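Note to self: keep these together.
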Amino acid sequence: MAVRSGDCAGAIRRTRRWRLRSNQSAGADTGQRSSRVVLGEQRFDDRTQEGVPPGGRIHRPYARGAIRSRYAGGQTEPENHCAGGLRKIRAPGHAAIRSAAGRLPWCGCRRIGQRAAHSRDPGCRCNVSAKAMIYDAIVVGAGPGGSSAASFLARDGIATLLIDKSTFPRDKVCGDGLTPQAIYWLDRLGCVDEVLAATDACLKSCDLFINGELVLTGRFPSHTQYPDFAVLLDRKRFDHILLNNACDHGAHFQPDTRVHDIVYEPDCICVMGETRGKPTEYRARVVIGADGVSSAISRAIGNTLKDGVIAASLRAYFRNVEWDGAQIKVYFARDYFPGYGWLFVDDSGFANVGLGYAFDKNFPMLENLGAHFRRFLATEVAGMLANATRCGPVSGGSAAFYRPKAIIADRVMLIGDAANQADPLNGGGIHKAMESAFCAAQTCRHALDAGDFSCAALKRYETRWNEQYGLDWQTAEIFLSIAKNPNLRDFALFLLKNIGTLTAADPQFQDFASGIFSGVISQSSCLSPLVLYQAFPKQLAAWLALMQYDANAAVDGKHDVVLGSMRLARGAVGSIARAGVNMARSPVTTLDWGIEVATRVMRLADRQVASGHTAGRHGEPAHTSRR
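Structure:
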């Protein structure tokens, strides 16, 4: 029984703790570098699979060299990444095994006779009133971050209540793409098999368009510790799988409950809400806020909307889409930069088509994002949608890319979008929510063991997240801070176009560039001159291809390097000049923006110096780890 009160829950927690501690190093409770839950060191039984199409078998070795390259620059190996073990993840094939053979050893006994977490049959695991319980942890929000946190907590024997305002299954505005990092975390959660069985597309490449022109077809690097593919699965089914997984591990789910506030009591914290129109309250030792951008838990600990970067997006579904090339298509264009459009299509021709735009107080939102979206549908993707049918209405969503005032307080932690932790470079939030869910769950376990739920004790969560992911997040934030200035759009698109040309001519540089954008290679590795030197093309043929591309033709059958260089220089100077003229027209805004970028660069430099992550200490980038 997963929901227990008082000391009983603590006793159950202690008796079940061996299940994870059997996989921990001897110093796991010391908080040192060796204190990681080495789940990946269990060598799961290989799953046989017949009839897998070419390229359908995916191998993922957790080599220490790959992990060191992912965290280049002297960073210690993160506690939540596997090392020394081997786990094979396969893309779903024609005769893919649908069983969950990769689960942790004790999960099978919990799954016997338990019900699915449908809102009308929520799978409650207690025989007494939930309102009378003092849970170990309450997780508010059953999205990817909340359900992941509930799974991590409940499988460690921690009495966990998961609350959401909606009934499940329910829809959510998203691109529906699950990145290699997300697949990694699904493996850690034990539900990767269900996701792979439900998806209708295994995606290993991406077409990049700039101003309507196909610049390159990229791919996910195949030699990092992450899988080299992504999958498509709509959030309605994906979130339901994660919720079922949390309940299977023993979490109690309470749907249709909208949380309004939290109230501190002497020995716990009370979550105040409303369930189907009736006031309700639940109590716990710790509350984890995973309730999205408009988080009620975040507001309750003093956070307010501030002048930071926010991204707004519109999305629609289409059937009978006709496409060629890659099934992931990303579009950059002057009309909606900083932002991008996308079309993700599965094998059946069902597509998620959307457009997102980033803005803040200095550079406001487009006057009519809906009009730009309609124009995007009528121009960039019109050919693929010629015989397609739209399914349902156009939906909108948002994400924030700035640090809130606090992500911890006494008895409270924020994760995922509630803590604004989405990737500022590509907007991906699912895997980021899972990462923070793991850090928060580990901190919660330590707090329960110590009986200390103060802000100082929960600081461990913020510290752990900053150590493992903060450097990459800060680096991506700087890129976004620069790119969000619409006066730089011409130069930014010029730069993107030529980088795309270089990547098309050099596979090693292509792996590096696509790895940085997708996040499977540490984004902070861009800070190292050594890494950049190793990554950039060194073959003359790649640079000649760039010159020929810009010259748009060969002269007398040969590459005219002089003409290509002149055209390249003219494009760079012209775009920079236009940016300078536009910024000069609004000097106050430009000055404010410049100070913001400089401040963030200085903060990142201070962090690099303080942590000893100097450029000379950066290791070999992930894309060269097998060369």
